[in-house]
Amino acid sequence: MRRPGTLPSIYWTKRWQSSVPHDGPPITETNRTEATMKRFWKTAAKSLVATLIAAEWENQETFLKHHALPMTALTSRAIDAMVDETTRAEVRQALLEYLDTDTICFYQDYPPQLVDLQAQHWDPLLAWARSTFGVELHTFDSVLFNSQPEETKSKLDQILSTFDHWEMAAMERATYTTKSFIIALALVRKHLSVEQAALAAQVEVASQIQRWGEVEDTHDVDFHDVRRQLGSAACLLCSV
């Protein structure tokens, strides 16, 4: 039972109409104030998406916690922005820039724990990307003056151009979360699970924890936040 004074439950209803959009039935919200919901999206691809979003809102109490609404934000991004081809083109360009600073392309030779984790999580991922998409991917030992081949960027841009608005929204979130175009692409293509993608993205942090131990309220928060963000992307892709 909710405490007195907390926000009311949210009840989601489907309006099955003759003019249902081709990519899903409209979803409407009730028992939320207009100010809270006025900019909220009006459609979802499948009932599973609506169920996940309803669960997020059901767990909101006195104050809205935006970090606890990953599915809401991601679905809104897909519906409100990624349906526009110009926006998708701009996002593609922004994501391709991550190739030059991709997390998994920067190797270090010390300490041994880090070297082992790089080989475990990054080597197979780079091999997959090279063989699957027929691209050349360079690895570096410095962040200065590095770039991937233009042909590689062109080929991967062609891959992104085939993504629909759901896939682009998921790709954008996964790239920004992991700081890696390749990890994000592997997640969207379902080559990696959420946990595998998170482990690949946090190799350096895992190495630090192995050497020095976990910093409370820092490492543990990051651990869960990365999985929450990547999990929302994976859930969206599994639901559309």
TrEMBL record:
<dbReference type="Pfam" id="PF07542">
    <property type="entry name" value="ATP12"/>
</dbReference>
<dbReference type="GO" id="GO:0005739">
    <property type="term" value="C:mitochondrion"/>
</dbReference>
<protein>
    <submittedName>
        <fullName>Nt-Gln-amidase domain-containing protein</fullName>
    </submittedName>
</protein>
<dbReference type="GO" id="GO:0033615">
    <property type="term" value="P:mitochondrial proton-transporting ATP synthase complex assembly"/>
</dbReference>
<dbReference type="InterPro" id="IPR011419">
    <property type="entry name" value="ATP12_ATP_synth-F1-assembly"/>
</dbReference>
<dbReference type="InterPro" id="IPR023335">
    <property type="entry name" value="ATP12_ortho_dom_sf"/>
</dbReference>
